[in-house]
Specification:
The structure is a homodimer. Chain A is α+β, with helices and mostly antiparallel strands. Chain A folds into two domains: 90 residues, Glutaredoxin; 113 residues, Glutathione S-transferase Yfyf (Class Pi), Chain A, domain 2 (Up-down Bundle). Chain A has a four-stranded mixed β-sheet with strand order 3-2-4-5, covered by helices on one side. In chain A, helix 1 packs parallel to helix 3, helix 1 packs antiparallel against helix 6 and helix 1 crosses helix 8. Chain A is globular and about 50 Å long. The interface between A and B is large, with 43 and 43 residues.
């Protein structure tokens, strides 16, 4: 297979919008992907305040039926929800997929590990947060199933042990190179830290990988965005401290 | 972007194994994808009996940590789990992705709709089955949360209405062409039929799409495989009738 491709000039890319929340764990996945691809400058962030339940309003549900963040909005109004889908789109733009794989095998393994990171770790932490803790507060969490939430907490901890065992034998989640799979596990680590779900002490490979990840420029850029704090919009006046 | 590609000869492809169960809704997704790609003849199916909980045994968990079907095993022993990941792999093999999109936009939209079909429909039916019905029976369903199961049943029905509303305005789930997104919604329809969860009468666009899908050769091939019945292996002697 031969592929010839002109140089990709990101300055020709129309500005995109990302509907998200500055320190959300799922938004982090796309912000890190944007940073990895050098695309942060081509994006305008639109704040959707999770703590006031803005993502569950009819206006936002018209943008994303599932009521989740983030959502990518293209210059023509096309909407792409779901972190994996957004990352797949962004990664394909320059014809040089660095996060989702170039060969069939890389694509398969990266998509598998990304999904596994969601099911076994990130999504499980999310269910724990929304169902077995105060979550986003009583105005937003209109239904909770604590038994299910605690079960998912335990699943997430097992997930940490699983990824630890993997990372004992490979440098990155899906093999020898950084990928969307690492970003998904990072999403899990970010959410676990927010809900104060500790990584077991004996998960030394997971912790060493996590420390290495923090040195990547994309993670530094993401942290700087978080440290800049909540966007000052009218919406956010009542943001809980 | 110019892509030149030699003709792909599937007869050169080493035989792959698929670990699955003949009439499972998730296995159906990959069997339909294989049929769409003309790859059924390159696959040997290994039966994993869901009804005896074979997918939850240590032997199978070593193949797929998540304990789910199907799993693709390549000739060198490489294992790829998760329907989306397997489909992505298979679709990339011939350099002519017909199920997962060719342009960045197609890729993004197809991955979004596939994930949405899982979250809002297929996975919700699955949780209903495993938590609020007898599921695979008391030997396999060691924990059930019926309240959560019924909630997911209601979510699945809302999901049917959502896909119905989409299909009023487009011929296929992710736009103008058949894709992995259609296969994911078909997975939901297959699971809903198994658990006798009816499609609301007023979902006429969803029903019309579903009827059109049955005419595709891939669906006929899948149905023929199901009608051949459960594989006759020692494992299956105690299969419930």
């Amino acid at each position: 297979m031969t592929i010839s491709m002109p140089q990709f000039d990101i300055s020709t890319l129309p500005v995109m919008k990302i509907h998200d929340w500055f320190d959300g764990p799922y938004p982090a996945r796309v912000r890190i992907a944007l940073a990895e691809k050098g695309l942060l400058s081509r994006v305008e962030f639109i704040s959707v305040n999770l703590w006031t339940g803005q993502h569950k309003t009819p206006d936002f549900l018209a943008i994303n039926y599932s009521g989740t963040l983030p959502v990518l909005e293209l210059h023509d109004g096309t909407l792409i929800a779901e972190c994996t889908a957004i990352t797949q789109y962004l990664d394909a733009l320059d014809g040089n997929p660095t996060l989702t794989g170039q060969t069939p095998l890389e694509k398969g393994l990266i998509h598998m590990m990304t999904k596994r990171a969601e099911i076994e770790f990130l999504d499980a932490v999310s269910v724990y947060f929304h169902h077995a803790t105060a979550g986003l507060g009583p105005q937003v969490e209109l239904y909770q199933n604590p038994e299910w939430g605690f079960r998912m907490r335990d699943k997430a901890v097992r997930g940490m042990r699983y990824f630890d065992s993997l990372l004992e034998h490979r440098p990155f989640v899906a093999g020898d190179a950084f990928s969307m799979g690492d970003i998904a596990v990072l999403g899990g680590m970010i959410f676990a830290a927010l809900v104060k779900l500790p990584v077991p002490d004996e998960c030394t490979a997971l912790q060493a990988w996590h420390a290495r990840m923090q040195e990547r420029p994309s993670l530094r850029e993401w942290r700087a965005m978080v440290e800049r704090g909540a966007p000052q919009t009218k919406e956010n006046i009542h943001l809980p401290s």
